[in-house]
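Consider the following input, taken from an annotated entry for Diphthamide synthase domain-containing protein (Aeromonas hydrophila subsp. hydrophila).
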Amino acid sequence: MSRVIVLWSGGKDAMQALCHAREAGHQVVALATFAPPAPRFLAHPLSQVHRQAAALGLPHLLITIEAPFDLGYERALAALKEEWRLDGVVTGDIDSVGGAPNWIRERCRPLDLAVHTPLWQQSREALLADLLTRGIVAHLSCVDTQVLAPEWVGRTLDAATLAELQQLAASRGFDACGEQGEYHTMVTDGPGFAAPLALGRWQVARQEQLAYLLEDEG
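Applying the prediction step yields:
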């Protein structure tokens, strides 16, 4: 049984990758989020990511990366490999972004760390159907308003929403899984969750062309 960490954003792809890793017999020892100094993630607020890890009963590692980022990632991964006795890392990557090589695979290559990408280049229709089959509950947490209207923010990816999303993707020519940044998601339930997470009080906020869920701290 290989010891792995799952690179964790809190979205649907990371959740599906976690499920696949466990089914493949890997021992998932932690969830890891790489972040710049003083991070502010619009699509995946760290407060929610911490709650997800707690619900899954896994340690959450927030790892600060500074420039130059290629060396920063490699040093951090090397330290994780030693501290957690890792054999590999698992990612929810589905495809190359902008035609670039897979970032994590390139960073792990000199470290002799295996990279597991169970969703890689799978059918988008199959991946989205898998969410329903597994009982993964995900909400659109951020959208590019040049692709999807702000009203999509907060919608649950249920059967009706997934059907509508795939129809739009087919007609407009964007990635139905959001792999090129068309949208991002936030998981609130799924296999391994001790209990579903409540979204609580959120509002839709805007930053340039992005619309996203902003947690109401009041």
